[in-house]
Design a protein that fits this description.
The protein is an alpha/beta fold. Helices cover about 40% and strands about 20% of the residues. It has 8 helices and 11 strands. The strands form 2 sheets. It has a 9-stranded mixed sheet, sandwiched between helices. A two-stranded antiparallel ribbon has the order 7-8.
Length: about 240
Amino acid sequence: MSKPAYKRILLKLSGESLMGGQPFGVDPEACYKIASQIKQLIHLGVQVGVVIGGGNIFRGAGAAKAYMERTPADHIGMLATLINGISLQQAFERIECDSRIMSAISCDVMAESYSWKNALKYLEKNIVLIFVGGTGNPYFTTDSAASLRALEIQAEILFKATTKVDGIYDKDPVKYKNARKFDQISYNEVLANQLQVMDATAIALCRENRIPIRVFNLFEENALLNAVCNNAVGTLVREL
């Protein structure tokens, strides 16, 4: 087995990754599979922070377009990430892997309020951190939260795990059979070509702080392990 290329990582999970084969909500077995992959990394000495989305339950931006104000719509989306975080933590409990939920929104009964200093202490103890609540502010996606947390915890790389594609393409590979996959691509190319891998704010924040991003399909065999060992998987976004 290859050795890990990184000591500390930030993993961005979509809410959809928790659905399994369901059209909505949380599948406990999907949570179990994800938690088991992450536990492998902990055994290898890799420190892991996780930012999780809420799209499997509620999408604030979509609701705002349809029938409600954007701020309360995003607040509901933040609560959806808390539901997902608790679900994922229960999977870690099942496999006896120590984890903590840290929330950007105050919800002391269910999650610890986010603290940069406490986060670093937990990571040094090899405790998996599950960051929920996005940035705590409306109008910012959980992709932006992932970039922000990656910076704050001094992660060496941000992993963007997808459930539909195995990297970044020049156009939608589902619609176009001739879509070309990039092995590597620069931040500027992603932004200039409006490639929908993460929102522009998240990409720009990583570019400014030189944090590489690797985009890959979470459910390909050993994908997360291969990504951490810097093997050829998905697409690497960095300064070229």
